[in-house]
Design goal:
Elements (H helix, E strand, L loop, with lengths): L11 E3 L4 E4 L2 H13 L21 H15 L5 E10 L2 E11 L1 H4 L1 E8 L8 H16 L4 E7 L3 H9 L3 E10 L2 E11 H6 L6 E3 L1 H4 L8
Parallel strand pairs: 5-6
Antiparallel strand pairs: 1-2, 1-9, 2-3, 3-4, 4-5, 6-8, 7-8
EC number: 2.-.-.-
GO molecular function, one term: protein N-terminal-serine acetyltransferase activity
Pfam family, one: Acetyltransf_3
Amino acid sequence: MSPPLYPPLDLQVITPRLTLYGATDDLLAQLLPIVRAGVAEGHPGLFDDPMSLYEDNPVRERKWLQAIWRGRGTVRPDAWRLYFVVMLGEQAVGMQDLIGVNFDRFRTVTSFSWLAPNVRQQGLGREMRAAILHLAFAGFGAAEASSDAFLDNVASNRVSEALGYHPNGTDWATRRGEPARVNRWRLQRNTWDKHRRSDIELIGVDACRPVLHIPG
């Protein structure tokens, strides 16, 4: 069997509640109706600028896809981004990204995610984050993970706190052009290890490491 053309698309992170699949174009197509209907509707906004999900259609869909395609092709030792589609059984319900930030020097990562409005407030955000942290720490040997959220993004801040992140100060960002305060969070490997889960399965990690310039 020939090796996969782009191993990150074969990655899977499996938990008892959901599975993260590498975001192939077929899976992205399943998310298009959700993106078209609106992920970032209402106020306050969840995302900082620039953000394709704030755009009007059809620009929203085109920019969203283009950003993912560009991200696939931008892989350096110090900077890479992996895109996952969140699946509940056979249903695509959102995205979870893992982003390497100066990973070759500091082994640091951050994350980004969104869920369809109709499946929020069910604990899926915490499960997705736990899954991607397991990939970062157990799969890729990360030393530290960070996360940011606007002060009024209660759900994201609660997820970070529940998973053991520590407050790491505040900063400013804009959303839809307006300034707003951001909470910064930090999770070190030794803290993650204390609460490490044994029910999360990783598939495809070994083939992915060389693509991301991560030693085996």
